[in-house]
Amino acid sequence: MLSLDKVGKTYPNGVHALESFNARIPQGEIVAIIGGSGCGKSTLLRAVAGLDRASTGTIRVDDIAITAPHEKIGIIFQEPRLLPWLNVADNIGFGLADLPAAARRDKVAQALARVGLSDKAKAWPRELSGGQAQRVAIARALVPQPEVLLLDEPFSALDAFTRRDLQDHLLDLWADTRPTLILVTHDVDEAVVLADRVLVMRPRPGRLFAEIDVGLARPRDRASSLFDAVKKRVLTALDRSLDRDLPDAAPAEAVGAWW
Amino acid sequence: MSIALDSPAATAEAPAQRYESGRWQRLARPALGIVVPVTLALAWELAVWAGWSNGRLVPPPSRVFATIVELARSGELTKHVTTTLFRVAAGFGFGVIAGTLLGAVSGYWGIARRLLDPTVQALRAIPSIAWVPLFILWLGIFETSKVALIAVGVFFPVYLGVMGAILSVDRKIVEVGRTFRLSGPAMIRRILLPAVLPAYVVALRVGLGLGWMFVVAAEFMGASEGLGYLLIDGQQLGKPAQILAAITIFALLGKTTDWLIERLTAPLLRWQDAFRPGGDS
Fold it and tell me: What's the ipTM?
C-alpha cells in the first residue's frame, strides 16, 4: 500500500507546486496521473521517488516513510538516462551491485530476454534506438523488483508505433511481479490503456481534481466504444480542470498579458 | 549478346574493387598527413642542391638528418633526450597530481571552490615564465626549479579541466545514481569518474603540450644538457642544423607522447558517441 497524506510542495523560490494531495494506492494497482502543465504531477512523482522532499505531509510505502530514494521504489524517466559508459547488460545490472557476480549475471540475462534485447547485451547505449533504450531503462528499474514503479512520461519522446508497443510491453512486464505503477502522462490514450484509475490534477497550485475508475478488462481494445467512453470521461474532466472560471482556480492572467 | 557477356565480368570485379578501396583507406588516409611536410622538405632540399640557396642559415633536411645521426652516434642525443624526457615526466607528474586533486576538490565541494578557485584563477593570470627568477632563487638552478616550472605549466589546464568536467556532469545521470541509493564514494566511482574521463583525457593532453612548451623555457634558463640546451648551444655557436635537429626531435617526442596518452585511454573511451568528421580512423 502506497499512501500519500496531505503531501504539499512549495519550492524555495515561492512557487506553490502542490497542495495537500491525498491518495491511497493498494499494492499492484496501476494509477495514471494526468493534467495540464504546472499541475504538480512531476513534483508529486519526484517526492514519491524520494528525489525531492515534500514540504508538508507524509508518503508511506507499507508504513515506511519515504524521505529519500528507497529500494522498494523504482523510477523510469522521460529519457532512458542510460549510463553511456556501460553496455546494455551492465546498465541493467546497475542497481544490483550488492549481488554476487553470478547471481547478477543471471538476473540481467533474464531481464534482457524478458525485454527482447538478448542480442544487444554487449551493445553501447548510443547504438540503441529510442524504443530499445527505453526498454533497457524499464529493465534496469524492474530488475531489483521494486514494489512501486514510478514512470514520468516514459513514452512521450517515442513515435506512436513504438509507444503503443512499449505500453503493451509494460503491461506484460507488470503482470510478472505486479508492482504498483504510478504513471505521469500527457496522453489520455496512454492513461486509459494502462491504468486502473486515472487521477486528473489541476494547476496553480497543483491538486487533485477528479478521479476516474477505468474498469475495463485487459487486454484493452483501443478501438472499442467502451474504451472511447472512458476516454471521453477523462477528457471532459481534463477540460474542466483547465477551466479558469471554476471556483477557487487561480487567475490564469497571473502569467501576465502585457497588452 | 555482348551485354549479357559483359555484365558478369563487371559484377565479379566489384568486390575486388571494394577490397582495394578498403586498403586505400586504411593505409593511405593517415599518410595524407605527411604529404605537405614531405613536399616542403623535398622542395627545400632541391633548392639547396640546385644552388638557388646556400642553405647556411636554413640547412636542407639532409643536413639536419645528418646532424641527428651524428648526435646519436656520439651518444649525446640519448643523454639530451633522456634528460629532457625526465624533466617533462617529473613536471607532468607533479602538475597532474596537484591539478587533479585541487580540481576535484573544487569541482566537488562548493565551499572549496569558493575558497580556492579565485586564488587559483588569479595565479593563472600570471604568465608562468614570470615565476622563473623566483623559482631559481628558491629552488636553485638545477633540476628542482625546472621541474617546478613545468609542473606549474601543467597544473592549470588539468585543474581547470577536472573542475569544469565535474561541474558539467549531467544532473540527470547523477539522479540515476541517487535513485539506486549510491553512497558518496560509490557515486564518485560509478558515476562521476566515468562521466569526467573524456574531459580529463583532453586536459591531460593539453597539460602535456604545455609541459613540452615549458621544458624549453626551463632549459633556456641555464642547463648543461637537454634538448633546450641543444637549441641555445646551436644559437651561440651558429649551428642552425643543430637547432633544427632539436626542434625536429621535440616535434617527434611531443607527438609520440600525445599519441601514447590517446592510445592508452582509448579503451576507456570506446563508449563515446562523438562527432568524428571525415570518418573514424
Answer: 0.82
Average pLDDT over residues B178-199: 90
The length of chain A, given as a count of residues: 259
**In which domain, by residue range, is A141 found?**
79-146
Are A126 and B273 in contact (CB < 8 Å)?
A: yes
Mark out chain A residues that contact chain B at CB-CB < 8 A: 49, 51, 68-71, 74-75, 77, 79, 81, 83-87, 94-95, 97, 124-126
CB A242 within 8 A of CB A221: no
In this structure, are A98 and A58 located in the same domain?
A: no
Residue B280 has pLDDT above 50, yes or no: no
Residue of B nearest to A90 (CA): B190
* Residue B103 domain boundaries: 75-269
- Tell me the CATH number at B252: 1.10.3720.10
Q: Does B280 touch chain A (CB under 8 A)?
A: no
Does position B203 have pLDDT exceeding 90, yes or no?
yes
In a domain, B57, yes or no: no
Q: What is the mean pLDDT of chain A?
A: 84
- According to the model, what pLDDT value does residue B281 have? 40
Min Cα separation B160/chain A (Å): 23
Mean pLDDT of B36-43: 89
Residue B15 lies in a domain: no
- Total structural domains within chain A: 2
Rounded to the nearest 10°, the torsion over CA B231, B236, B237, B241 is 30
Inter-residue contact A26 to A34 (CB < 8 Å): no
The CA distance from A69 to B219, in Å, is 57
Identify the segments of chain A with pLDDT beneath 50. Answer: 249-259
Overall size of chain B counted in residues: 281
